[in-house]
Amino acid sequence: MKKTIRSRAVEMLLFAANFIRHPYMLGSIIPSSRFLVDQVLEPIDWERARVIVEYGPGVGTITGEILRRMHPDAYLVAIETNKAFVRFLPTSLPDPRLHVVHDSAAEVQSVLQRLGLPRASYIISGIPLGSMPERVRANIVANARAALEPGGAFLVYQFTSRVLPVLQRTFGDVRRSFERRNLPPAQLFVCAT
Predict the structure, then answer these.
(1) pLDDT in tens, 47-100
(2) Does the pTM exceed 0.70?
(3) What is the Cα–Cα distance from 144 to 17, expressed in whole angstroms?
(4) How many CB atoms lie within 10 A of CB 119?
(5) Phi, psi angles (nearest 5°) of residue 121
(6) Which helix (H) or strand (E) holds 39?
(7) Which residues pair with 175 in a beta bridge?
(8) Is 149 helix (H, G, I), strand (E, B) or coil?
(9) CA 182 to chain CA centroid, nearest Å
């Protein structure tokens, strides 16, 4: 496996520049804190997880930590709509287990199919679902549920609770928690199939 090539200053500049250009595509002006990353990833059974999907990886703050923790024969599919992030991720996180795809989270099932992968054990989402139109939000959440294997989970972190009603309508079991040691403070939702 190649050594990770990361520069915190480059990540921060790229993230901030894209926030200014596309404020509704990013939930925050700065990447997630290590406290948020740890809490988002805490529910994952790393021995069992063979396919993990991440919606909106941005500069790879969570992506890099997933790669560090996941099984050697697991796959991480990072679905990103921002071309600058799509170009940046493979060079900053050169890992054969990482598949960066320029597409919409709503297309998760077709992305997995194109890659020849089964349904995901976990889908992690930090995309700002709360700022999307209700129809788009509901479509992304429904497609995430359909792309999960039995016993899988949709792990969502947001800076608003607007996504909670659609999560509760789509998943039978939704647990909610908070991470205040992030800027801004985040709400986390663990949605089980």
Answers:
(1) 999 999 999 999 999 999 999 999 999 999 999 999 999 999 999 999 999 999
(2) yes
(3) 29
(4) 17
(5) -75, -40
(6) helix 34-41
(7) 190
(8) strand
(9) 16
pLDDT at res. 96? 98
Task: Name the token pair of 11.
Answer: 């990540």
What number of other Cβ atoms are within 10 A of residue 4's Cβ?
Answer: 13
- AA identity, residue 163: V
Using CA atoms, how far apart are residues 48 and 66, in angstroms rounded to an integer?
14
| pLDDT given at position 13 | 52
CA distance 44 to 121: 9
SS3 158: strand
Beta-carbon contacts of 180 under 8 Å, excluding residues fewer than 6 positions away, are none
All residues at 6 or more sequence positions from 116 whose CB lies less than 8 Å from its CB, including other chains: none
Contact 75, 52 (CB under 8 A): yes
Which amino acid does the sequence have at 39?
A: Q
Which secondary-structure segment (H or E) carries 40?
Answer: helix 34-41
In terms of Cα–Cα distance, which of 172, 163, 166 is closest to 191? 172
Tokens of 43: 């529910």
- Distance, CA of 78 to CA of 187 (rounded, Å): 21
- The helix (H) or strand (E) run that includes residue 110 is helix 108-114
pLDDT one-digit tens code per residue, 121-140: 999 999 999 999 999 999 99
Could you give the CA distance from residue 188 to residue 58 in angstroms, rounded to a whole number? 18
Closest among 92, 50, 62 to 155, alpha carbons compared: 62
